[in-house]
Known about the structure:
48% helix, 251 residues, alpha+beta
Amino acid sequence: MTSTPPFPELLALIEGRSAAFREAVATAPDLAVTVPGCPDWSVTDLVAHLGGVHRFWAAAVAAGDESGPPSADRLGDRSPHGDLLEWSAASTGLLLAALRDAGPDAPCWTWWGDSDAPLTVGAVARHQVQEAGVHAYDAQESIGRAEPLPAAVAVDGVSEFLQVGLGSLGAWPHRPARVAFQAIEGPSWTLDLSPSGAKADPPASGEPVTRIQATASDLVLALYRRIPLTDVRVDGDRAVAEQLTEWSVAD
Length: 251
């Protein structure tokens, strides 16, 4: 597994990817256009979603309570008001301010309690890098200018998805399998799938039945189902790769 970027770098990545998201939205000729990665949404819906996510986690971080999500009173109104891009920028600002004020080691409720990821502000920041990164890609794709995820986002994005996105799903519903992921840039990851769930970075024992290779950006985008498996190299048991992407939960 790769190491998680330091907390200040995570905050800078959230800020940078959120800015890239708004840059793409600002050039959209029509905010009603469909988002390919989220076909039930328009660009307006995408902005409302990401801004609402930023405001939710700003409230959760500020609450400092790992026992449950923030109350409705603490959350307040998370729907867009006024200029859409100004509201989006303000949403990102609220999230970043809450993260900075709390610090990485502060406790925080999260939805991934069933995984082995910590219930901390640092873990929230790490996930919010992926939230902003993937949705920046969505916005860029909506205007026909999709760009690969930056390396700093993508490399940790594979690790984060395996640990959090898959690690929180519970029992693997298919035949147990070991899957290897190889980024063309160099990093690699191993994932075990069993009735005990998805376990990233397992002890060395046995060869993978499936190997998935691509750039780190394409690995993340395939895991989040933004690109098809045909866009990455799959060796070995392809059915396992298909089952994995169907099983994964991504928005």
